Amino acid sequence: MNVPQGRLRRQRVVTDLTTPLERALDDELTGYIRLEPQDTLLLDSEGAGVLTFDRGIPRLVYHTGTDNGGTAALTDIAVAGPCRVELYELDRDALDEIQETPELAVDPGAPAEQLAGDRDLACRTRERAPEDDTATDPDHDAVSAFLDDEERIAEIKDAARAEAQSRASDWGFDI
Amino acid sequence: MVEAFAVASGKGGTGKTTTTMALGMALAEEYDVTVIDADTGMANVLFHAGLAAVETTLHDVLAGKATVEEAVYDRFGMTVVPCGTSLSGFKEAEPERLRDVVATLAAETDIILLDSPATLGSRSAVLPIVLADRLIVVVQPTIPSLSDAMKVQEYATTYGTGVAGVLFNRVTDDAAIDDIAPKAERYFEGETLSTVAESETVRAARRAGEPLLAYAPDSPAAEAYRQAAASLSVQARDAGTVADRFRSAVIPDEL
């Protein structure tokens, strides 16, 4: 996805994506946010996720590392751990050029549900979305694709075990 | 004879406390059950058990200001040890005292359910998982919840705690869960205990300050929790051995 360069409005490292997604909705952001995992233990940390918004409603998702789009890209982005978030504004005309890319489209509530685990925010987003944007429900597809990715899950589990072992000595647990 | 379970999720909002109380009530039909709110930073059991107004809680016990017996309440056929919600109570609490609390209660019960914090961010948050014999994983069928639940499981098994099973909670799409649950099972130890649908009844029970099984015993969600309880094969250990194990759990002297 070739996103025009936007105007950087905010950047921060977060562990919970609820706030940036909620802010994008409430501020009716037209533009995109760039999400870059900070957890280098996970191999998928290479590359960044890009999520476009049209008046606060999530439209397209793309991952620069895996070249995946849509719900597949959501699964690439949805990892536990800190994430650098950069929020960019764009003119609607600039965004319109890339909006008609169905293979990158996501259900408006999916980012809140799958990236932040916030069902209430997902419901609010869906309620605010234009009617046709809620016609599909790709959440199930995203979860299913995530569970099919055995390599990725092995990485998550390996990283958790390594973290648990490393912290055991810090915390004085005898393992 | 006693077995201690940590009810954990890794991520908040999965319905962990609802699950703890529901499993507790279902198991109490057969066993002597003790529920301990081990989430000392974000206590919730008191709101689910109609104990919001009590004076003495686990915070006081962990601060050395009260005995365990003073923080124990008989509710809904269970022994309930609620935790307080004040920040000062949280600050004064010494988490390592939890092992003594569990050791004391282990002598007089069959099953201990530790409602555990929804984070792995600190030693005190992980402590209930370390102390428990086995883990009950509460998970929503979303990617963050599944990946966090896997993390909790790996922490537990790394620290020598077994996994009793996985409970899918707050499920909104019955058809989808039939596809997702078998795929998820491959990554979790233990069995799938039950699938509990999202329902307004659960929220109403919480607002009423009653466990679901007391508020709506005939609801589909209550039945699903009973199924989960029936699927748990309790592996009772000798109470004295369990108490000794908790007391000797290796915890650093300094926070």
TrEMBL record, chain A:
It comes from the Archaea. Residues 2-173 form the DUF8054 domain. Residues 124-148 are annotated as: Disordered. It holds the Pfam family DUF8054. InterPro entries: DUF8054. Residues 124-142 have a biased composition (Basic and acidic residues). This is DUF8054 domain-containing protein.
From TrEMBL, chain B:
One of its GO terms (molecular function) is ATP binding. The lineage of its organism: Archaea, Methanobacteriati, Methanobacteriota, Stenosarchaea group, Halobacteria. SUPFAM superfamilies: P-loop containing nucleoside triphosphate hydrolases. GO terms for cellular component: cytoplasmic side of plasma membrane; cytosol. Pfam families: CbiA. Residues 6-211 form the CobQ/CobB/MinD/ParA nucleotide binding domain. This is Septum site-determining protein MinD. GO terms for biological process: negative regulation of cell division. It comes from the Archaea.
